[in-house]
């Protein structure tokens, strides 16, 4: 699964479908693409819930719109090869 | 016993030649890997970026992305529609497939 490709431990920004953006360290991802983040903070001017007391959170995969990834931590060649392989496997 | 059967079936699947021909819509997307694409999403959003990965759900990873969000403001008195678009750039983005409506090569003028 793409997201797990060693991005665990890196900082990401998860943008939800309700327009809330949460910055945090990627702790884990599961088969539904549910995400656990640690040490979170709300990015964008804190116009949305001030989750000041929340350190860790679990995000249901279905409410995610985007996950912003650190570009330099991503091996694009590896991703493209993995996508081609997965596309072939899906057809069979 | 059922474990051994599974191993045999998987072995047979791997021996079948993988096809490089374009057969189904997802194959058209495969042709766009490492190319710039245009993605239309729900809620009047559009993305333009380089396609690095995708899957059968149309989850995608795009690089060098420009997101455009289009809004309509209506003047209360004149009922005039004012279309505004907001853009932002994101170096590397995972996009969840359930928001994707259309995938195409970037729209070219001329």
Structural account:
- The complex is a heterodimer of chains A (92) and B (110).
- Chain A is an alpha+beta fold and 92 residues long.
- Chain A has one helix at 76-91; strands spanning 11-16, 21-29, 35-42, 57-59, 64-68.
- Chain A has a single domain (1-90), classed as SH3 type barrels, CATH 2.30.30.100.
- In chain A, 17% of the residues lie in helices and 34% in strands.
- Chain A has a five-stranded antiparallel sheet, with no helix packed on it.
- In chain A, β1 and β2 (21-29) form a beta hairpin.
- The longest helix of chain A has 16 residues, at 76-91.
- Chain B has 110 residues and is an alpha+beta fold.
- The mean pLDDT of chain B is 86.
- Chain B has a single domain, classed as SH3 type barrels.
- Chain B has helices at 2-15, 25-30; strands at 36-41, 45-54, 60-74, 81-95, 100-104.
- Chain B is built from two helices and five strands; from the N terminus they run ααβββββ.
- The termini of chain B are far apart.
- Chains A and B meet through β5 and α1 of A and α2, β2 and β4 of B.
Secondary-structure-based class of chain A equals alpha+beta
**Content-based structural category of chain B:** alpha+beta
**Spatial shape of chain A:** elongated
Multimeric organization? heterodimer
Low-confidence parts of chain A, pLDDT < 50 over ≥5 residues?
Answer: none
User: According to CATH, what is the topology of chain A?
Assistant: SH3 type barrels
- The CATH C-level name of chain A is Mainly Beta
Terminal Cα span of chain B: 63 Å
Largest sheet of chain B: 5 strands, antiparallel
Write down the overall mean pLDDT of chain A: 88
Would you identify the regions of chain B where 5 or more consecutive residues have pLDDT less than 50? none
Rg calculated over all Cα atoms of chain A: 15 Å
Whole-number radius of gyration of chain B? 20 Å
Function (chain B): Binds specifically to the 3'-terminal U-tract of U6 snRNA.
Subcellular location (chain B): Nucleus
InterPro entries (chain B): Lsm3, LSM_dom_sf, Sm, Sm-like_LSM3, Sm_dom_euk/arc
Domain Sm (chain B): 24-109
């Amino acid at each position: 699964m793409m997201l797990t490709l060693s991005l665990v431990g890196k900082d990401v920004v998860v943008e939800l479908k309700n327009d809330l953006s949460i910055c945090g360290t990627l702790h884990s991802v599961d088969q539904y693409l549910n995400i656990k983040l640690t040490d979170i903070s709300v990015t964008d001017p804190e116009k949305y819930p001030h989750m000041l007391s929340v350190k860790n959170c679990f995000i249901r995969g279905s409410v995610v719109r985007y996950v912003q990834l650190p570009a330099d931590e991503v091996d694009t060649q590896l991703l493209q090869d993995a996508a081609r392989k997965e596309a072939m496997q899906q057809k069979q | 016993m059922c474990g051994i059967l599974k191993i045999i079936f998987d072995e047979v699947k791997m021996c079948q030649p993988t096809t490089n021909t374009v057969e189904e819509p997802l194959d058209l997307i495969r042709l766009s890997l490492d190319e710039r694409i245009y993605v239309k999403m729900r809620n009047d959003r559009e993305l333009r970026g380089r396609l690095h990965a995708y899957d059968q759900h149309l989850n995608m990873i795009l690089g060098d992305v420009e997101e455009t969000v289009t809004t309509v403001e209506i003047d209360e008195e004149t009922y005039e529609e004012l279309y505004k678009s907001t853009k932002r750039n994101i170096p590397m983005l995972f996009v969840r497939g359930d928001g994707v409506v259309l995938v195409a090569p970037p729209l070219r003028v001329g």
